């Protein structure tokens, strides 16, 4: 399947990382081409090429101020991208919730292991299944694994 032209919609236009960087800069306020060039550290023709694509899909507006052309973000064409990404919000939230549960379990396990190493009585067997009395260290006297 042939790829759509970058000027057909905002999805295609923002697929290019450098254009996203330009949009990030313009989200903070209007800038002239030379200001964008300075901040990105890339050649002016490349910045102008990206600005042309962004203008063609409506993501960027331009206005003349004397001899300068000032570019600013037009966020309206980003709405379909926002709406599409929002559809994944529930999925991400569920995954983060599951990750929180796993993290809490790992922290609890670490807390239990740290507590036992400090002399807290063991209530469970070690990973090898052996039971030990409080204060007894199963791997002392040269019996150290790993």
Extract low-pLDDT stretches. 132-146
**Looking across the biggest beta sheet, what order are the strands in?**
1-3-2
The arrangement of helices and strands along the chain is HHEHHEEHH
As a percent range, the share of helical residues equals 40-55%
How far apart lie the N and C ends? 54 Å
Morphology call = elongated
Structural class by secondary-structure content: mainly alpha
Radius of gyration, in angstroms, nearest whole number: 29 Å
Give the beta-strand count.
3
Strand content: 5-15%
Major sheet = 3 strands, antiparallel
The helix tally amounts to: 6
Q: What would the average pLDDT be, to the nearest integer?
A: 82
Report what the structure shows.
The protein is mostly helical. 49% of the residues lie in helices and 10% in strands. It has 6 helices and 3 strands. It has helices at residues 10-13, 17-26, 33-40, 44-56, 79-86, 89-117; strands at 31-32, 60-65, 68-73. Strands 1-3-2 form a 3-stranded antiparallel sheet. A hairpin with a 2-residue loop joins strand 2 and strand 3. The longest helix has 29 residues, at 89-117. Residues 132-146 have low confidence and may be disordered.
Short description:
This protein is mainly α. The chain contains 6 helices and 3 strands; from the N terminus they run H-H-E-H-H-E-E-H-H. Strands 1-3-2 form a 3-stranded antiparallel beta sheet.
Give the secondary structure arrangement, pairings included.
Elements: H1 10-13, H2 17-26, E1 31-32, H3 33-40, H4 44-56, E2 60-65, E3 68-73, H5 79-86, H6 89-117
Antiparallel strand pairs: 1-3, 2-3
